[in-house]
Amino acid sequence: MRLAKITIYLSLLITLLTFWSCVKEEPVVVPDVYVNFSINLLLPQYSDLNAPGNAIIIANVGYKGNGVIIYRLNLEEFFAYDATCPQHINNSTPIKLDDDPSNATCPSCETTYSFLNFGQASKGHPLKKYSVSLSGSFLNVYN
Questions:
Q1: What total of structural domains would you count in the chain?
Q2: What pLDDT does 15 receive?
Q3: Could you tell me if residue 29 is inside a domain?
Q4: What is the per-residue pLDDT for 133?
Q5: pLDDT at 11 (0 to 100)
Q6: pLDDT at residue number 29
Q7: Would you say residue 60 lies in a domain?
Q8: How does 28-51 read in b/e, with b if 16+ C-beta sit within 10 Å?
Q9: Per-residue model confidence (pLDDT) at position 100
Q10: Could you state, in chain order, the average pLDDT of each consecutive group of 10 residues for the chain (143 residues)?
Q11: What is the CATH number of the domain that holds 97?
Q12: Is residue 106 within 8 Å of 98, Cβ to Cβ?
């Protein structure tokens, strides 16, 4: 009788462990925060954005104030990404622009993000993207 109880408990334990190991984790992404700002592309601090293929970081906006990266793809297209590394958002680590401004890298996990590939990561989740519109010389970034 005692051996039967142990067998039942072991079977139950093995079943539960199998179930828990098969449960997929939901992907952790950068949480939504309110983003709505404009920059004047004629101002000197934004002059890097006057040439396609360049990027800048606007500080103190986005998730936990880690910043928003604005990347100019060509004469007409701009993209904006939260500068928070989505691989470990609990650490709230901002990514840094590389020497090649079409890429950025997280200093903590060394994940590389390609702006030419719409913020895709070398491993893990892509960057959180924000909407962008151009009105004259003003670039509006919002969600």
A1: 1
A2: 60
A3: no
A4: 96
A5: 62
A6: 82
A7: yes
A8: eebeeeebeeebebeeeebeebee
A9: 92
A10: 63 56 55 95 95 95 95 94 90 88 92 93 92 95 96
A11: 2.102.10.10
A12: no
Cβ-contact 84, 64 below 8 angstroms: yes
Sheet of strand 36-40, all strands in order from the earlier edge strand to the far edge: 36-40, 138-142, 129-135, 78-82, 68-72, 55-58
Q: How far is residue 5 from each of residues 2, 17, 32, 111, measured CA to CA in Å? A: 5, 18, 50, 50
Alpha carbon of residue 102 to chain centroid:
15
pLDDT of amino acid 24? 45
Residue 52: closest CA among 20, 76, 24, 17: 76
CB 35 within 8 A of CB 141: yes
Q: How far apart (Å, rounded) are the C-alpha atoms in residues 62 and 11?
A: 49
Domain residue limits at 83: 36-142
End-to-end C-alpha distance for the chain, whole angstroms = 64
Q: What are phi and psi of 134, to 5 degrees?
A: -110, 125
The burial class, CB within 10 Å (0-12 / 13-18 / 19+), for 13 is exposed
CA distances from 78 to 86, 89, 131 (A): 21, 25, 9
